[in-house]
Every structure is written in structure tokens, then in C-alpha cells.
Amino acid sequence: MTEIQAGQHIYASVEKEQSPAGRGGFQTLCYTHTAITAEEIEEIEPRLLYYPADAGPVKHLYFSLSSGKAILARIVPFPERDSAGREGRYLAHSLVLKSEDLSCLGPRFLGIWEGFPFASTVEEALALCGPEPGDMPEAAAHIPDQTAGFEEARLWPLDEFKKWLRLALRVDGLASERMAVALVGDPEQAHKALAAILPFVPSGLLPRCSFDTYFYRCNLVSAYFWAVGLPEPPGGLKFKAVDARARRVTAELEEAMEISFERWMAEYIGTEDMAFYMRHREAAYSLCEWLDGRREAPEEGDAPLLQSVLSVNWIQAKEKLTARLSERLPSALVYRLTERPPYPPRQQFYLMKNGVTSLQAVELLYYAYAATSYAVPPRDEMQALGKLLEEADHQDLRLLYLSWKGQKSDLRKLLESAREEAYAHQVRTLLDFRILDPVDFLIPGKGAAFISAYRSSGIRSLAPVVSALVSAREAGCLSALVPDLPALPPEELLPLQKLAARNAGLPEPFRQVVAEAAKALPHKKGLLGLLKGLLGKYMFFSL
Fold first, then answer.
1. CA gap 258, 177 in Å, rounded
2. How far apart are CA 214 and CA 532, in angstroms?
3. Residue 243 forms beta bridges with which residues?
4. What separation in angstroms does the CA of 497 have from each of 70, 205, 278, 516?
5. Read out DSSP for 144-198?
6. Interatomic CA distance for residues 318 and 344, integer angstroms
7. What are phi and psi of 3, to 5 degrees?
8. How far is CA 210 from CA 65, 184, 253, in A?
9. pLDDT 10s digits, 283-337
10. Which residues make Cβ contacts (< 8 Å) with residue 417, sequence separation at least 6?
11. How many angstroms separate the Cα of 334 from the Cα of each of 67, 291, 296, 387?
């Protein structure tokens, strides 16, 4: 149970002798002078309208003042006429909450009507007034820690509940068109419909979800509320009807979701398990409002939240990401980074919020190209990439760029200047690209590092590599290839056998394993295959 101090306001039709001002009719009898100003009373009074039908039900109102204070009112009709024989008398007892108290309570403010002793007669109201004429003290209001909203929500069919919540999320759009949600039914049914939906409305929208549970014969022009209770379905185009009795939205709603939070809500809410929605509702709303351009960037949320919001709002996220990246990069590179972004949610959020530096851009571009198996990009993109690499170098991306351009001389200069460890990394990177011939990467004096990188790459086309090593006078490194030789297929082994036959200076372990592996090869069938096999042996052993 939470206790708050609230200002009070009493408005009623009284006889002259009952009025602190000495006049009869409708008027403010008293109010908490320290909580409400005279200007605010001018805002309050026009909204406290009541035109009773025969039954004369009690109704509840909620609305916010321009100052941010919240008004929670209860109106009861008087069956008796006044001294002049006029009907339609009633009394409105309102509580005035500070905006910070409303934010603290959230949808729990609905519990105020459950236990607070609102006045029902003029005598009760006058008894609440203070010793000073027209003044009254603040009141202590006790609000339950839980509301009946979750139980009410479970009574709604899920699809209808989502439609009802969509109308709540569109509170600002409806207000801009002076349209309202019509809750068709009696005031109690209207109140239950509100109790079902308001706990699921983000706190940023809650102050605008004003309502009047019995709006009979009232006019939206003079007293606008987001949701109004009506005993019968309304006519005209100014209402979105909800059948509060049958828990069904009868208004036509377009299938397209207008705001990002709607899409997130539709994906993640369910009346059976509300845990994820309720846990992330506020953060998701802030993030969605930012995506829609209605607020500043929020703080970073956790990964599941970011993933959930960005995945269902990818079009909006991509637009924001594109706009941010375009502040630094040409369109060709922006397209590459947004076409199939390989970013985890937090990195994507960071880029959307902060943009990208040149150093970050080259790193991201490299991984973007890797995701396409290093396919050659269009010419305009290649030109833009070359200019970017002049601003911020990235070793692997530069290797890729030179490979695409076929600039072997520049590539070899880069490899020649690298130390052995860096050179081995560069060779492995170039081999991953599978764009140029591996022998283009062999630098004299770095044969051991080349072979180490070559073996780790998983490539097994050894014949041209061995030939290149021999030509570069790096034959002494061939012993490192010995473990790979027995597993070579015949089309690889036979060229090595011929190479060994022509080069007596190859390491003996290499020559021996090549010879043994060649002996183990099956001969081709037929006379020609036999002669080729014998000829190969003769050439090898004669050297």
C-alpha cells in the first residue's frame, strides 16, 4: 500500500445558504489552496460535466492539467431538485496529484477510486472544508500495490486486447484529430476496460490517456477525453468504438502498424505470459520513440531488448542507421554496411546513436565483404573504398582492395616490408580471399613463414607452390611440407615427383617421402599406364 498526499476540489450544485460564496447553483465550493491555483480551477470546472440518464450512475474521470498535475474525480448525481425545481444536480469530488506522484504510481492510480472516501452529498463535502472559507486541507490517499488490471486483461481475447492496446498507444494521434475511443457499456464496464489496458501503457503516454466513464450527452469539443464511456454505440466519425461489455474492438483498424512500439507490442505481448513485455515495456518504448524520431537517443538497453526492438522494426532501424552512416561515408559504402549488417544488437545501436569514424568504418567494411565471400564490389564502391583507405588504413582490407584491383606490385611491396609474423598473417588473409595465385605472395627470404601460412589455410595444391619455392631459392623450407605429402591425390603427387627428379638439391626427407608416396600409387590399367609408370620410376632413380 502506497500513501500520497493529494489536493482536493469540490464542485457541486448547492443552495445559496450552502455556498461559501453566498450564491446558489453550480460552483466550486472549496479546494486546497496550496495545491491548486485559480487558473487551474478554470481548467477543471468545464470538464466536470454530467448529464444523468434515468439511472443516474456514478462516473469517474481522469485528466491532466496544463501544469502536469493529474485530476482524478468522482461524480455522483443528486436525485432531488433544487429550490427552483431544476433537475440535473450533481457533486464532483476531485483529487489533485502532483505529476511526480502520478509517475510514481503509474497505472496503480486506478486504485484510488477503490478505497478513498469521496464525498457523495453536499453535507459531506462541506464537512471536508477547512476553517477558512473556500479552503480545504490535503487528503491522504492510499493506493494498493497491485491493481485488478492483469486479471481484467486475461478476460480479453488476445487479438482484441492487442487492438484495444493499439488504440491506447495512438492517444496522441487521436487527440490531434479530436477523436476519442468510445467504450460502449455502463460506467463500471468502461472502468474495467480501462483497468485492463492502462497497466500495459508506457508511462510516457499514461498522462494523456484521459477518460470519462460516462460521457452521456457531453461534447468532445468542449471537454475532450481520450476514452469516453457511452451507453450506446456512437454515431459519426469522431469515435473508435470498443464494446466494453463483450470485450471486443468494433472499430476498424488498419493492419499496418503506425508506430514502432505498436509493432514491438504486437510481437511480444500475450495475455498468458506478459513477463517479457512488462519487464521491457518502458525501455522498449523509449527506444521505439527514438526510432520514430520523437525523442533523443535513450541509454543502451540489454541485448535481448535491443534485438527484440530492432528485429521487428528493421525498416526504421535501417533508415536511422543509413542516416547516421551517411554523415561520414559515401552512399556506396553506406549501402554495403546496411544491406546485410553483421552487427550484434549493441553495436548496431551504437552506430545508430553515434555514427561511425573512419577507423570503425574500415573494420566494419572488411567484415561486410567477408560476409559476401569477398565478392568484387561495383566500381563506384571500389573508388570510395580507395579514398577511405587513404584516411584510415586497415591492413586486411587494404590487402583485399589490392587483390581486387590486381595490383600485384603494390601488394608485393606491402608483403616485403612486413616482418615475418605479420607477413604470415597477411599470407593467410590473402589465401582466404582466393582471388590471386598463391605464388604471388611468396617473398624470397620468407619461405618458412609462407609455408606455415599456406599449410594453415587448408589449401593443398602444392605443386605450383613447391615450384615457386624452388625458383625463389627457398627449397630448404620444403621439409615442412613432408607431413602433407602422403595424403596428396595422384594429380598433385606426380608433378612433385617430376619436380624432384629435375632438382637434385631438394631436401632428402622431401625427396624420400615423394618417392614412397609415388610408389604407393596404383598404376593405370593398360600398356600405356604401365609404360608411364616404369618411365616415371626410371627418370626418378636415374637422377
1. 15
2. 103
3. 184, 248
4. 92, 80, 72, 10
5. -SS-SHHHHHHTS-HHHHHHHHHHHHTHHHHHHTT-EEEEES-HHHHHHHHHHHG
6. 14
7. -110, 130
8. 10, 16, 21
9. 999 999 999 998 898 888 788 899 999 999 999 999 999 999 999 999 999 999 9
10. none
11. 45, 18, 23, 14
Residue 532 burial (CB count, 10 A): 14
Q: Kindly report the CA angle at 331 between 410 and 395, in degrees rounded to 5?
A: 30
Q: How many CB atoms lie within 10 A of CB 429?
A: 19
- φ, ψ at 125 (rounded to 5°): -65, -45
Rounded Cα distance between 420 and 270, Å, is 60
CA-angle at 273, arms to 268 and 279, nearest 5°: 65
DSSP state of 131: S
List, in sequence order, every residue forming a beta bridge with 140; answer none if it has no partner. 5
DSSP-derived letter for residue 439 is G
Characterise 130 by phi-psi region: left (phi > 0), alpha (psi -120 to 50), beta (else): beta
Cell 526510432 belongs to residue: 291
DSSP state of 542: T
Using a CB cutoff of 8 Å and minimum separation of 24, what contacts does 196-199 make?
Answer: 196/149, 196/152, 196/153, 196/155, 196/156, 196/161, 196/164, 196/247, 197/149, 197/153, 197/161, 197/164, 197/165, 197/168, 198/107, 198/110, 198/149, 198/168, 199/106, 199/107, 199/147, 199/149, 199/150, 199/153
Residue with cell 484495444: 164
Query: What's the pLDDT tens digit per position in 247-272?
Result: 999 998 887 777 899 999 988 887 55
Question: Would you state the cell numbers that stand for residue 393, as one nine-digit string?
Answer: 588504413
